[in-house]
Amino acid sequence: MPKEKKYDVCIIGSGAGAGPVAYELALAGHQVLILEKGPWIKTKDFSKDEIVSSRRSVYTPKLKDEPQVIEKQNSDGEWIARSNYETGQDMWNGNCVGGSSNFMSGYFNRLKPNDFQLLSKYGEIEGANIVDWPLKYEDLEAYYAKVEQIIGISGKVIPHPMAEPRSTTDFPYPPLAENVAAKWVDQAALKLDYKSLVLPRAILSRPQSDRNPCYYSGYCGSYGCSSDAKGSSRAALLNKALKSGNLDVIPNAKVFNLEEEHQKVVVAHYYDIAGQAKKATAKIFVVAAQAIETSRLLLMSKSPNFPNGLANNSGQVGRNLIFSGGGSGSGEFYREDLDEASWNQLKAFGVFVNRTIHQWYEIEEEPFAKPVKGGSIDFLMEHNNGITRAIHQKWDNEGNLVYGSKLKEKLKHYFTELRSLNFEVFVDWLPTDDCYVKLSEEVTDKWGDPVAHIRIYSHERDVKVGQVLAKKAEHLLAEMGARNISSNISGAPPPNLVAGGCRFGEDPKESVLNPHCQAHDVSNLFVTDGSWMPTGGSVTHTWTIYANSFRVADIIRGKLGE
After folding, report:
1. Which of 203, 332, 439, 478 has CA 20 to 30 A from 546's CA?
2. Backbone conformation region of residue 36, classed left if phi is above 0, alpha if psi is from -120 to 50, else beta
3. How far apart are CA 497 and CA 324, in angstroms?
4. Distance separating alpha carbons of residues 456 and 328, to the nearest angstrom
5. Which residue in 179, 156, 182, 180 sits closest to 169, CA to CA?
6. Contact at 8 Å (CB) between 249 and 489?
7. Tens digit of pLDDT for each residue in 301-335?
């Protein structure tokens, strides 16, 4: 690649927030550069190796080289900050070309109209910094539909009271093959007057150009897809954009500073794979490095115009970090309780449950005195990770360590005589003053740059709402005949579902970005990962991040044409 090449757009990051911008602008004939901190892992390199995917830092940085400082309250309410190199609490996501979209499960739901108007619809919540979005659902609907086609979403539209408006009648791809447990969920839901729905997935059930459909390997979430059926930014967008000849991708490029002059970014400074400092110039810069790292980069990029960090004269960069609230639960189905045909269907490998319930997206019952924003429940089989499942069996019901022949018997029984049906609850993680990103004053990474200091705090409302939904899910499992039903709703953050830190809004004093996801004070800087979200909704974030990124791509394309 010639050093003197001039780019129209330089994008930092390559995941769900970056892919649509690169795709749309490269196909429109603009010269685009992506600087990705991680390596370029190709489809042929992904395997179903649990040690690689789930038990080692292969797709994420080694914490010795790139730690983070995590600050949490202890049982006495004291704030304690420690490097995660010491604790092992890893907050990194997929660190490679395509980002964490390579490793997502692809549970895709749209936000609903009430997600955009949390403040005006439900009122203020003490201790929570909720606001209405500067957009409405209708502003994103066409882009949600665009994602369905380009990324490839499979599913089936079923009318229900909480359904969001659609411009199309159904998904472009039919539902994926289902486990018999899906039918059992439907039957139990009918008896309880619940409304079960087919859960949309960003996984192809039929071929799309050079992408293959799902072959039901049984190893999806946390794993790279070796058929390209999963709608990752890499497989669905970047591979196609590269064919235009207008996109360059530099992997192993760690951006450490965005140089600003006259309230415009003029240079992206980065370290290459050899640790050498390099520069990239462009007309427009887009940051999509995932929420925590995006805030960190802006905070590191100081200048006379922005002494507290780029685009941070409001002091809002890094504030109002959000995750996805909720938790999970499960119930067990035993071979001895089922006929042979049902057992054989239940243990069918690789096929999905793909059921979701949105009936309580708004809750009007105890313990709440007035209607409040609720959430969603997704159903899935227990993950097939053998090592992880085996480790869970090393304790008995009293918390004693099991080993030797007893452990062997327990493992054999667990893997051959029962199957676990899980559920996941998604509710808003309310933004607060005590959940944010700043720069560490003590810990640096292997390049000598200050690492992200992440304070984590969950509002008590998140847990209360999640517990209501978990009880509903437990009742359904009981109606299905499951045993050993349990759930855990807590304020623990899921590292793969993070947003906020650079919220968008109309007021430059209260937000980092304008409604176009353009920095209020830096005219050629845009942020398109989940950082812009002022609230996160009660579903996973990825579909909305994709949709908004397509929206911003249209805005940038218009500016380049001016």
Report:
1. 439
2. beta
3. 6
4. 19
5. 156
6. no
7. 999 999 999 999 999 999 999 999 999 999 999 99
